[in-house]
Design goal:
single chain, about 400 residues, two-stranded antiparallel sheet, 20 helices, disordered N terminus
């Protein structure tokens, strides 16, 4: 078969192939984007906005140690820009629109309460409206029922939250991790209501069925047994906690292990177990979601603690509880006391760090003591190293300082 590039012989002489005729059709002046249909362009912008929004939102939740390296590489976190991009993607026709909705809900009802002090009623109303809008399309969606339960929690309505979580658990349809998540929320809500029996039953089930931290679930099982007065069972279970740690880098497991080891020399009591349950509720930033009656019961629990080695924890929790009751100056005194009681100890630095954070968060709202409050927040952030829940607290401090700076600029 002849090569198409070879010239053809004419009368015994090779003749070169003629060059192609130049095109007389005028080239288009339109750019590739202008050639796209409006629908294609809308989907493209929705996809790009989703990726950008996720990236910015993730950066805003990264601990300072990692964020400094990322900023050195030229990236800067802008949470508000990320949320706006996700909202744009949510309204687009791109297939990632539903994922943008779930991401926005995840941030507002899970991450935001965890890293900030409160959510305004307007923001809660907007979140509720968004959930109800998509619940009409997906009435049996376990995810939207789960998020609705979280909104009920943020509204301090734990009974309504429990109803939504029960529905979410029933509609999981084989999604084991989501079902376990709903069960965890049911256990936690009952813990906030001081219903130790229900919490113990669920934590025991999760210990058997869930692949997540056996160490933490065992710790919670021990505390619930102790809070119920079953002290021998609690002590036996508590001894097994340190041996269940899988990853030393897991902050929750490391915390549970250290707490459990303290009881090698200290006898467990029901009041101590209840206090340590309140410590976790505080560390999860869940006290703002408890009713006045529940907070008052928790104060009574703190008042019954007599073990002096735990007075620094008691002071921190008493401060946080009085803060929820509106007794701000009394709360500030308890936070001072927590710092003073922890001083000299070679453990529980997270107690002093959180107490300083609470004091700084209060003082920064007072015009004449704003600078003192900032210094206290920076001391909480930089004055302690390698303590329990350090990354969480540093993110909360950073977000609070940014919020204050943005208000000052305005």
């Amino acid at each position: 078969m002849p090569d198409p590039d070879d010239s053809e012989p004419v009368n015994g002489h090779a003749v070169a192939a003629s060059p192609p005729e130049p095109s007389t059709k005028p080239a288009s002046d339109e750019s590739p984007i202008e050639l796209m249909s409006k629908d294609t362009l809308s989907r493209l912008l929705g996809a790009v906005s989703f990726g950008y929004g996720m990236f910015q939102l993730a950066l805003s939740l990264i601990p300072d140690k990692v964020l400094k390296l990322i900023e050195f590489l030229g990236f800067h976190a802008d949470r508000d820009a990320g949320l706006k991009a996700l909202e744009f993607s949510m309204e687009s026709r791109d297939m990632r629109g539903p994922l943008a909705v779930l991401t926005i809900l995840w941030y507002h009802v899970l991450m935001r309460p965890f890293f900030t002090e409160s959510i305004s009623p307007e923001q809660l109303a907007e979140t509720t409206e968004l959930i109800e809008k998509y619940q009409q399309q997906y009435p049996q969606s376990a995810l939207f029922l789960f998020f609705k339960g979280r909104v009920c929690r943020l509204n301090r309505n734990l009974d309504a939250a429990l109803q939504e979580y029960e529905k979410a658990k029933d509609y999981c349809n084989g999604m084991v991790e989501l079902r376990n998540g709903a069960m965890f929320e049911i256990a936690w809500c009952n813990l906030m209501k001081l219903n130790y029996d229900v919490s113990l039953e669920i934590f025991t089930t999760l210990l058997e069925e869930s692949k997540w931290s056996k160490c933490f679930y065992t710790y919670m099982q021990a505390l619930c047994n102790g809070a119920k007065g079953q002290l021998e069972i609690a002590a036996t279970i508590m001894k097994t906690v340190p041996g269940l740690v899988k990853k030393k880098t897991n902050q929750i497991e490391a915390f549970a292990s250290r707490r459990a080891q303290q009881f090698k020399k200290i006898k467990l009591t029901d009041n101590l177990c209840e206090l340590l349950i309140l410590e976790l509720i505080y560390m999860w930033n869940n006290l703002p979601q408890c009713s006045k009656q529940e907070v008052e019961k928790m104060l009574a629990i703190c008042g019954a603690v007599e073990e002096k080695k735990f007075f620094h924890i008691r002071s921190l929790i008493e401060g946080a509880l009085n803060k929820q009751l509106g007794e701000i100056e009394l709360a500030d005194q308890y936070f001072k006391e927590a710092v003073a009681r922890q001083e000299g100890l070679k453990f529980d630095y997270h107690i002093a760090a959180h107490a300083l954070f609470e004091r700084g968060a209060y003082l920064i709202t007072l015009e004449d003591r704003k600078q003192e409050g900032k210094k206290m927040l920076l001391k909480a952030k930089d004055g302690f190293k390698e303590y329990d829940f350090e990354n969480r607290l540093n993110v909360r401090i950073r977000n609070l300082l940014k919020m204050v700076e943005s208000v000052s600029v305005k």
